[in-house]
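Entry 12.
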Amino acid sequence: MPNINNNTLIILLGPTASGKTDLAIALAQHFKTEIISADSRQFYKELPIGTAAPTIEQLAFVKHHFVGQLSVKDNYNVFRFEQDVLKLLEKGFQSHDVFVMVGGSGLYIDAVCHGIDDLPDPDPILRNSLKKLFEEQGIEALQQKLKALDPDYFQSVDLNNSKRLMRAIEVCVQTGKPYSKQRLNKGKDRPFNILKIGLDVPRETLNQRINQRTDEMMKSGWIDEANAVFPIRHLNALNTVGYKELFKYFDGVWTLEQATEKIKTSTRRYAKRQMTWFRKDKSIHWFEPGKVEEIIGFCQGNL
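Predicted 3D structure (tokens):
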């Protein structure tokens, strides 16, 4: 469907710790618009420090959507996110020509841009067997099973998210085809233009930023934040980088120093998986994070 109103969704993406938040605010202020978060971990109000969510000061600069709107106890998924964002944009484009979406969750960004494919409903027997496998042999068993069934998706999925691993395995088993070959094969038309901006940071620089940010988060009260949700650690929202490592510190498995180093390592691996996902998208225009004026000018020239 052609976009007769020339409405544009600018998507700012990149790995964790690449500077997306500040740049998104600069873009939104320039275009006098609002920001949509596509970081699936920042949805949860209990986890602002550990997910590097925008600060109170940053939220005051520009109106943000999908930041801290959920509890870790709430059920939410990419399908609902797609529908919620489309509803927001339908209304928002009545008063704004441009919206800015920012985040590092490739699956959630793809859902807004292309839609979610119609995949088979989970088979209860298969789902129960995978849950039993997870409970008895741990997440490594799910990882190895997915790697054998779909090595391409294995390279990009969050390997610590048991639900995504199980869902991908289910689709592979039920259809006899790799999950990666069935996702987003036929994009849905959107009544707005999409302009994707990617932040490209040299790996060594990014690793330094990840290490520094982790130390700053620890000093900002991350331990207390993680301790507050420790009693409900079984929830899927808490099965994420940082919290799992701190939970092992609380359990006495690791020292705080060991847990901190594990967080840095896990975050670096997560950033690598993010870039593996994004590099496959040839529609992304890549820039260095510091090129603020250049990025704004590029966006202005492509509206």
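Annotation: The chain is about 50% helix and 10% strand. Strands lie at 8-13, 35-37, 64-65, 98-103, 193-199, 284-287.
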